[in-house]
Design a protein that fits this description.
Elements lengths: L3 E2 L9 H10 L18 H18 L5 E6 L2 H12 L6 E6 L2 H10 L4 E6 L13 H4 L4 E5 L1 E2 L4 E2 L11 E5 L16 E5 L10 E6 L16 H6 L9 H18 L2 H21 L16 E4 L4 H13 L2 E2 L10 E4 L6 H18 L1
Parallel strand pairs: 1-12, 3-4, 3-5, 5-8, 8-9
Antiparallel strand pairs: 2-10, 6-7, 9-10, 11-13
Length: about 350
């Protein structure tokens, strides 16, 4: 029996990456040590770190006038880092909410500036609008979350904002899953543990012109300029996490060549599962088609008791981590980059059997 991992995060790595980790575990690059036993300032790791950044830049097509930084603290650390680093003329920001994780950064930002909030996606899973010019004209930046892992909502385009207002995106769960125009954003941040490696790294893509504006109360550990000036080696990094990211970046480049090719794979996987959900009354997905996430597909059976049975029987069939987030319950299948199409096929096969059994 094959086993598949649909965890929303930390999530599955590509099997080829895991095999390489196992192969190199005791002797990385002929150092006779594992990658997490050597100095982060040694020549082997320094070379690896530069290659990691360059491959990421190539995949996402990051322009030269953007800094790529690797920090710790996860997405929650970024909730504080954003208002602490950006230049604040108005000391006001607009936070657009579309689900659970877009509401959290607004709570943190209130410590440092005035926060306005507005629903980008309402409680009925309907997009309110895309033009926020009027609402943002007295703000320093607009923050939004491109993919909501809890509800299964994906915002594929940045909001339209007033001239001079910065656009900040939390892309923790869909970064590197599709091409984007980096120039549409001023700051992008993403925790690694969904699509690009194991937990412990947060990737930032920041316009270089925004560096050097940190608040006096910004700790050095969150200061983007400090990390830019030190090649992200201001402190000892999470070396093993960096290592998994570097291996994943290289695998994506070698296997898919570019994100346009990878996007087609992700579209195919998600479309298969959504098509089945739409064809079967036993399961429900409440997200309209234009907002459906390709990364996190949420659904329900007719009641909570059957949801629980689904999780248990799926596990017995080798399908793991399909329980929905505690905030909304239900069920959820995460189909990140490393999840193969056959995992989606296997899940649909199980869902058909389950539906026939309990209709």
């Amino acid at each position: 029996m094959k086993f598949y991992n649909y965890s929303a995060g930390p999530s599955a790595l590509f099997p080829e990456v895991v095999e390489q980790i196992k192969h190199e575990l005791g002797n990385w690059q002929n150092t006779h040590s594992s990658v997490f036993e050597i100095s982060h300032r040694g020549p082997e790791f320094m070379k690896f770190a530069k290659e990691m950044e360059n491959t990421f830049r190539e995949l996402l097509q990051v322009p030269d006038d953007y800094a790529v930084l690797f920090l710790q603290g996860g997405g929650r650390g970024a909730f504080d880092a954003v208002p602490l680093n950006l230049p604040l003329k108005h000391k006001r920001a607009l936070y657009l909410t579309s689900g659970h994780w877009s509401r959290q950064p607004a709570l943190e930002a209130q410590k440092y500036l005035e926060v306005k909030t507005a629903e980008l996606v309402d409680k009925n899973f309907q997009q309110t609008k895309i033009d926020w010019t009027e609402e943002s004209k007295d703000c320093d930046y607009v923050h939004f979350t491109s993919n909501e892992t809890v509800e299964g909502i994906e915002n594929f385009n940045p909001p339209k904002v007033a001239p001079g207002v910065l656009v900040v995106a939390d892309m923790s769960s869909d970064i590197l899953s599709r091409p984007i125009n980096v120039n549409d954003y001023d700051v992008i941040y993403a925790g690694a543990q969904k699509n690009i490696g194991c937990s412990g790294v947060t990737v930032y893509v920041v316009r270089k012109s925004l560096l050097g504006h940190a608040s006096k109360i910004c700790p050095a550990i969150l200061n983007w300029e400090t990390y830019h000036n030190s090649d992200s080696l201001f402190n000892t990094p999470a070396t093993f996490s960096w290592y998994t990211c570097g291996l994943t970046f290289k695998y994506l480049k070698d296997t898919f060549k570019d994100l346009a090719n990878l996007e087609q794979v992700n579209i195919k996987k998600a479309s298969k599962l959504y098509a089945y959900l739409d064809s079967e009354d036993f399961y429900q997905n409440k997200v309209p088609q234009n907002l459906r996430s390709r990364m996190n597909i949420s659904f329900n059976t007719p009641n909570e008791e059957l949801d629980a049975k689904f999780v248990q029987e799926a596990k017995e069939a080798g399908l793991y981590y399909l329980k929905g987030h505690k905030v909304i319950g239900g069920l959820r299948a995460s189909t990140y980059n490393a999840i193969p199409e056959e995992a989606v096929d296997q899940l649909i096969s199980f869902m058909k059997v389950f539906a026939d059994k309990y209709k």
